[in-house]
């Protein structure tokens, strides 16, 4: 077995400090992406906007492989299966005369098979329409409380069973940020003023219970002002709130047209034993399951000291706090039905129930993640978008994969396994660093759409060939989308070899050797590179790190040479070429007991005729080397 140099986690000191509080084994490869996938690779389809878009909103299209993108006065209907069939629909969002602003789409929902629900704003006066996607038929809708006034304001909304639930402010000035049932057939209902303190809404979702539809609920996730105003308390805390879909508001005297089932609880994410919490919810994704009790909430939190944490909650646990916790500040007898219970006719609820619901909507108990002791993942990356996919391969255990976008436009593909993260890959979707404005996952086609100001990129999550040509490399990737079958690393289907739990590649040895490598590309051993190195000049060889979890080393004349690590290569440095340094150089990688040859060179002395050209080459390589090391 070779030993070599392993590059795991050049973690910043702050992260190190906070990791230290968690566990000493955190310095393994847990926080280092195993592979880096550059934008120049395969597996991307790009759609460039005719002009840069300052603000975009995504919606899944009707047909497979299509998405709608709401932009500046336009709706793009992008077909990634056949880009030339994409269309651009101009939106007649009216800009008031004399106002120089431009209109951007803020809200985009599917209403029914033929109609979309679209809102836009110029920063002053939002407008909403019910329209076909060819815009040959449209109907104006009152935008009050549906569309935010500015594109910088987050106001998630949700269409469910023809009803629109919104969180936008009602008036341009002042607050009025409520969770409301704003539009549809059912009675309009909003929040009691005392129920919230300057909320910033992050996400909204609907949870249906097939066995008991009366208990269908809407949940919102938000930040609000911390009631604890002591100087060392974070000014913000995070919450989840519930309301029942059947809720029609209270009686004539109490909570008339206001939620009677509104309850909120604190979402805790941190290390309770250290009293260290990540208080600010930035993004949330709800992974819905067939049975609602199995649904999971993934929250991305930030801290006052700019670290990010991800916590995973169970929907059943959230519901359990709302059904069993004490009411904050209330010590009387809990009335019957318990406030927050979904009832057929909320307008007939008795005063004692409505009073508790109105005055004490906060739960005493906090909602803790599934693993209470510590967040699922912490990072010094500023993750700002999240989608989660459930990957099911027939014959294998299902696995959840988190897709996290950093502020600087990188995607981390993270496996959730035994309550621990494994960063499968860092994906660079854009050729130059760009801010990710929007991201949605199509779980059916396993495509992730990410949008910057300039383009929308469809990322193929099943682009498996990039893990390498061998069975072991395929298994070591631990990518649940991928498996080894038919001589290649490919989209995992029944019978494919994979070992997502811990990358155990022992099954590969049972596969006949000739099926072990992809025949087309051959074995790297056939690809020795010859390099001319004149005497006494410095020289270097570079070996690309295909896996950042592997140890790399160079071998020459039975000697093992540790490498100098650059960002993505294991470098062999020769200060001055000597006769005994000529010959064969092999770079090996070793990971989990599997060793493979990455690259191979033969250094040969220059002969008279090639002296000049090799000098040029050496000069070039020194310049390149300086660049690589810096
Ligand atoms: C669109 O492009 C495909 C090839 O990518 C081509 O086969 C097809 O004819 C094009 N369709 C149109 C309408 O231009
Ligand atoms: C969708 O809703 C619009 C507006 O209410 C209506 O005109 C249209 O017929 C509906 N389409 C379908 C397919 O139900
Ligand atoms: C709008 O266009 C669609 C398809 O182009 C067509 O099916 C529909 O009948 C049109 N509706 C109206 C009201 O013209
Ligand atoms: C959902 O799961 C819970 C807990 O595992 C179980 O009690 C319940 O019967 C399940 N419901 C359905 C509809 O399968
Ligand atoms: C956190 O990041 C923000 C934005 O990058 C910056 O303005 C702020 O100073 C940072 N705070 C700390 C404590 O580093
Ligand atoms: C490397 O080691 C082997 C066995 O130990 C030996 O036979 C061989 O001559 C050595 N090669 C060199 C170049 O020293």
UniProtKB/TrEMBL annotation:
Keywords: Disulfide bond, Glycoprotein, Membrane, Signal
Gene3D superfamilies named among the record's database cross-references: Immunoglobulins, ligand-binding face of the semaphorins, domain 2, YVTN repeat-like/Quinoprotein amine dehydrogenase
Location(s) in or outside the cell: Membrane
Family stated for the protein in its record: Belongs to the semaphorin family.
Gene field: Sema7a
Organism: Acipenser oxyrinchus oxyrinchus
Stored InterPro entries: Ig-like_dom_sf, Ig-like_fold, Plexin_repeat, PSI, Semap_dom, Semap_dom_sf, Semaphorin, WD40/YVTN_repeat-like_dom_sf
Residues in the signal sequence: 1-26
Domain Sema: 34-461
Cellular component terms per the entry's GO annotation: external side of plasma membrane
Protein name: Semaphorin-7A-like
GO BP term, example: neural crest cell migration
Coarse class of the protein's main subcellular location: membrane
UniProt key word Glycoprotein: yes
Single GO MF annotation: chemorepellent activity
């Amino acid at each position: 077995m070779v030993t070599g140099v392993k590059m795991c986690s050049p973690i910043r000191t702050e992260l190190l400090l906070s990791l230290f509080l968690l566990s000493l084994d955190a310095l393994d490869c847990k926080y280092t992406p195993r592979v880096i996938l550059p934008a120049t690779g395969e597996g991307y389809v790009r759609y460039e906007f005719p002009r840069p878009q300052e603000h975009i909103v995504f919606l899944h299209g009707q047909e497979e492989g299509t998405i709608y993108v709401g932009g500046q006065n336009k709706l793009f209907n992008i077909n990634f299966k056949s880009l030339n069939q994409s269309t651009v629909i101009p939106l007649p969002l009216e800009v008031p005369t004399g106002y120089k602003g431009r209109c951007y789409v803020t809200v985009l929902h599917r209403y029914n098979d033929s109609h979309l629900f679209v809102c836009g704003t110029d920063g002053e006066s939002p407008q909403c329409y019910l329209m076909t996607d060819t815009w040959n038929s449209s109907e104006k809708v009152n935008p009050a409380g549906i569309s935010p006034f500015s594109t910088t304001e987050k106001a998630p909304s949700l269409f469910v069973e023809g009803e629109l639930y919104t969180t936008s402010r009602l008036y341009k000035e002042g607050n009025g940020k409520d969770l409301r049932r704003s539009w549809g057939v059912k009675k309009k209902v909003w929040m009691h003023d005392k129920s919230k303190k300057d909320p910033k809404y992050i996400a909204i979702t609907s949870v249906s219970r097939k066995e008991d539809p009366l208990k269908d609920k809407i949940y919102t996730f938000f930040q609000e002002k911390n009631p604890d105003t002591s100087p060392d308390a974070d000014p913000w805390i995070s919450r989840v709130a519930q309301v029942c879909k059947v809720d029609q508001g209270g009686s004539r005297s109490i909570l008339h047209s206001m939620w009677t089932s509104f309850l909120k609880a604190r979402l805790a994410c941190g290390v309770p034993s250290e009293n260290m919490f990540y208080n600010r919810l930035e993004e949330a994704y709800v992974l819905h399951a067939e049975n609602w009790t199995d649904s999971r909430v993934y929250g991305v939190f930030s801290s006052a000291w700019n670290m990010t944490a991800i916590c995973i909650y169970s929907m059943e646990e959230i519901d359990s706090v709302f059904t069993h916790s004490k009411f904050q500040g209330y010590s009387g007898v809990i009335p019957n039905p318990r406030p927050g219970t979904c009832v057929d006719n909320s307008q007939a609820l008795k005063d004692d129930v409505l009073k508790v619901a109105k005055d004490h909507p906060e739960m005493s108990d906090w909602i803790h993640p599934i693993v209470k002791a510590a967040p699922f993942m912490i990072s010094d990356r500023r993750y700002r978008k999240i989608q989660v996919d459930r990957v099911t391969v027939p014959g294998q255990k299902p696995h959840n994969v988190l897709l996290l976008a950093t502020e600087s436009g990188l995607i981390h593909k993270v496996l959730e396994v035994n309550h621990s993260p494994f960063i499968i890959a860092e994906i660079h979707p854009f050729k130059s660093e760009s801010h990710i404005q929007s991201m949605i996952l199509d779980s059916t086609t396993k495509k992730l759409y990410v949008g910057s100001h300039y383009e929308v990129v469809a990322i193929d999550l099943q682009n498996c060939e990039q893990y390498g040509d061998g069975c072991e490399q395929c298994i070591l990737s631990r990518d649940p989308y991928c498996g080894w079958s038919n001589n290649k690393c490919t989209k995992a289907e029944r019978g494919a070899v994979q070992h997502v739990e811990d990358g155990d590649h022992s099954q590969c040895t049972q596969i006949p050797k000739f099926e072990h490598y992809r025949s087309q590309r051959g074995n790297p051993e056939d690809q020795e590179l010859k390099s001319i190195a004149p005497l006494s000049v410095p020289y270097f060889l570079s070996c690309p790190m295909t896996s950042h979890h592997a140890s790399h080393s160079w071998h020459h004349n039975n000697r093992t040479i540790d490498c100098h690590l650059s960002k993505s290569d294991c470098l062999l440095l020769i200060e001055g070429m000597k006769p005994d340094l000529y010959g064969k150089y092999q770079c090996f990688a070793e990971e989990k007991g599997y060793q493979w040859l990455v690259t191979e060179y033969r250094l040969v002395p220059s002969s008279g005729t090639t002296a000049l050209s090799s000098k040029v080459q050496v000069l070039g390589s020194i310049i390149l080397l300086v660049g690589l090391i810096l």
